[in-house]
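Service request form, structural biology core

Requester: graduate student, group of Dr. S.
Request type: structure prediction, single chain
Budget code: on file
Notes: please return the result as structure tokens.

Sequence provided:
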Amino acid sequence: MKNKSSQGFTLVEIMIVVVIIGLLAAMAIPAFQKVRTSSQDKAILNNARQLAAAADQYFLENGVSSVSQGNLVGAANYVKALNLVANESYPGSYTQGQTITVGGVAGARTITYAP
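Core staff response, request fulfilled:
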């Protein structure tokens, strides 16, 4: 009589591997979310920094202390395009020396930039 050799994996071994993979995924997903949030915040701060620099240039060239976003963003203006990364909303006007508050970041956060 031949002994039946066991080839392959048992159901219990496969279930253990699935559970381990699930646990690893559960630990990794929050870390990826933090990286995504941090990346979005940096991109939004960069946009705010560009808008502040554009507003400062506009103030210098035109001798005014406030400007609307329409005079800053556009193909023929200081900032060619303002790419949204998390459905954020930028202020409609900028005043010299005032902080820029970007609201509605991913529907929940607010980011401020002080020039």
